[in-house]
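Annotators were shown the component list below and the corresponding predicted structure, then asked to write short factual statements about the assembly.
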Amino acid sequence: MRNIVLFGPPGSGKGTQATNIINKFGFIHLSTGDMLRAEIAGQTKLGLEAKTLMDRGDLVPDEVVIGMIENKLDSNKDAKGFVFDGFPRTVKQAEALDKLLELRTIPILKVLSLKVSEEELTRRILERGKTSGRADDQNEEIVKNRVVEYRTKTAPLANYYAAQHKLAEIAGEGSVDEIFEALCFQINNL
Ligand code: ADP
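Structure shown to annotators:
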């Protein structure tokens, strides 16, 4: 099983490239952001609780996303691989993911980290906000808060995976096709 983590700040292109990767390789896409938005759309209790945090650009509690991921791993036992997108986002989530995968003997092979400047991230997200319908994409202060959440809680994960010799950095500015090619090169080498 070829399991990879797509890593990078909000607006770095993880969702776009995850779609390209699953179309080419037939892996299963596990996006905690998409799962949470589905809970909101379904007006579940979890969705209603998550919405307040997401609309502010804050992270939702670790236990919530870890539980969602565990369910998806177990309902896709025959997957050729998983693409984790927007998860893990904290060291606690990364440790929990390692445990979940160890129990199932399906390790993460590579963490592909998309590098994009903070000015470019803000520009892209506000542009996406014109059509995405996402409240958290439309307000510059909220976008900035998401970037701060990333910098303080998520960016340290790069060291966590570098210590496991799994981190590969990819330039995330350029055309979608160029970036996809760089990602494919890494995946084909797994
Ligand atoms: P983006 O990558 O553009 O920030 P996502 O769709 O991945 O967007 O996430 C949107 C929001 O959902 C986050 O700002 C956060 O509130 C919540 N969220 C998604 N994944 C996680 C996670 N792994 N841990 C905590 N919160 C999460």
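Statements collected:
1. DSSP finds nine helices and five strands in the chain.
2. The chain has one domain: 2-184.
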